[in-house]
Every structure is written in structure tokens, then in C-alpha cells.
Design goal:
It contains no helices and eleven strands. It is mainly beta. Strands 2, 4, 5, 6, 9, 10 and 11 form a seven-stranded mixed β-sheet that branches. A four-stranded antiparallel β-sheet has the order 1-3-8-7, with no helix packed on it.
Length: 126
């Protein structure tokens, strides 16, 4: 079992940056891929970024590509999302997700993730 807890959200001015952290518990976290999603106005989860279990490969969604970087530190059981050049359109809840043990490949499909955090709110002032 893996539990995830996001942090690092908050209020930031447009043009600024944030670093979101996803802290994981559970021995199997490091052997599964992890990703970040964000909530859409239609209550869907939009893919932002994902990385492999090792962190050596990653993939990005179209909406934020070029402004975000995903990374992970398996020694610390953590995944990070750096967001740059924030705009008011980035205002939403950001979720961390993880795949079960040995599902090492990153995927943009939300239904392929087995564990989810509660989310962290990001608000951008113009």
C-alpha cells in the first residue's frame, strides 16, 4: 500500500514559480511510476507529467509542457513538480499519483494509476 501527500501549493503571482512535493509512504513506491495531474473545470484530471520508477524517463502533457519539470528522489520517497511562469489559468488543484509495484513506465492515463493524494491547491494572482 502507498499513501501520498502533496504539499507546496499556495498563492503565487503570475509569472512566478512553485515546487510541489509529493511525499509517499510504503516500501513499494520506488518501484512504480509516478505522475502529476490537475483538476479541470469539468472535474476531470488533466495529465501534467509522469516519470518512471527510476526517474530516468519522463513524459509531459501538452498543456504545461515547457513550463514544468518532474523529478523524484526514491531515497526520500518523494516526487516533485516544478512549475514555472504560472498564469491565472494554472489555478486549480494538483494531484500526485503512483502506480503499483513493478508498474515502472510513466503513463498519461489517469486510470492506470493506483494511488492518489488529496491534492494541493495552487492559486495564481494576476
Amino acid at each position: 500500500q502507498v499513501q501520498l501527500a502533496e504539499s507546496g501549493g499556495g498563492l503565487v503571482q503570475a509569472g512566478g514559480s512553485l515546487r510541489l512535493t509529493c511525499a509517499a509512504s510504503g516500501r513499494t513506491f520506488s518501484s512504480g511510476a509516478a505522475g502529476w495531474f490537475r483538476q479541470t473545470p469539468e472535474n476531470d484530471r488533466e495529465f501534467v507529467a509522469a516519470c518512471s520508477a527510476s526517474g530516468r524517463s519522463s513524459t509531459y502533457g501538452d498543456s504545461m509542457r515547457g513550463r514544468v519539470t518532474i523529478s523524484r528522489d526514491n531515497d526520500k520517497n518523494a516526487v516533485y513538480l516544478e512549475i514555472r511562469r504560472l498564469t491565472p489559468e494554472d489555478r486549480t488543484v494538483y494531484y500526485c499519483a503512483a502506480r503499483v509495484q513493478e508498474r515502472r513506465a510513466p503513463t498519461p492515463r489517469s486510470w492506470e494509476y493506483d494511488y492518489w493524494g488529496q491534492g494541493t491547491q495552487v492559486t495564481v494572482s494576476s
